[in-house]
Amino acid sequence: MHPTRILIIDCRYSDTQQFRAHYDWLDVNQGGYSVDTAGNRATSFFVYLVANCTGGTTVFPQVDRPEGDAWCDTLKCKEDNGQEVEWLEVQGKVGRAIFWHNLDPYGNPDPDTLHAGTPVVHGTKVGLNICTRENPYRQW
């Protein structure tokens, strides 16, 4: 059997719950973290399993939203007040998935991967996070 490099996390959010802005990579300079054995989280994959809610988007505030109305079925393009959304904000939909690299091509943490789950205003959101690591996490 091969050593695992995958981490799977199930997340459930209901009214007013959210996941504040964070990185999936570990900042070894902040202390308390060791990436010596398993390495850092190389990639992340988030899938909406339940999206019976208002709110609960996934926002990447450091990433510009692609231009054009064609994206507006997938991304939030306007705020409630009609103002354009300038960052990448993915609207929840069952089966919709988001994939990103947490590290740049040189293995350094990418600060543009800052992301958050916005508050669920009403209803339920369930997501599945799958993260791969640079090295095997444990030996079997």
List the helices and strands and how they pair.
Elements: E1 6-13, E2 19-22, E3 41-55, E4 58-64, E5 87-90, E6 97-101, E7 115-117, E8 120-133
Antiparallel strand pairs: 1-8, 2-7, 3-6, 3-8, 4-5, 4-7
Give your account of this protein's structure:
The chain is an all-beta fold and 140 residues long. It has a single domain, classed as Jelly Rolls (Sandwich), CATH 2.60.120.620. 0% of the residues lie in helices and 43% in strands. The protein has a four-stranded antiparallel β-sheet, with no helix packed on it. It is globular, with a radius of gyration of 16 Å. The mean pLDDT is 82.
Report a brief summary of the structure.
The chain has 140 residues and is mainly beta.
SS strand fraction = 35-45%
Distance between the termini: 7 Å
The CATH homology group name: q2cbj1_9rhob like domain
Poorly predicted regions: none
The name CATH uses for the topology is Jelly Rolls
Keywords:
single chain, 140 residues, mainly beta, Jelly Rolls, four-stranded antiparallel β-sheet, 8 strands
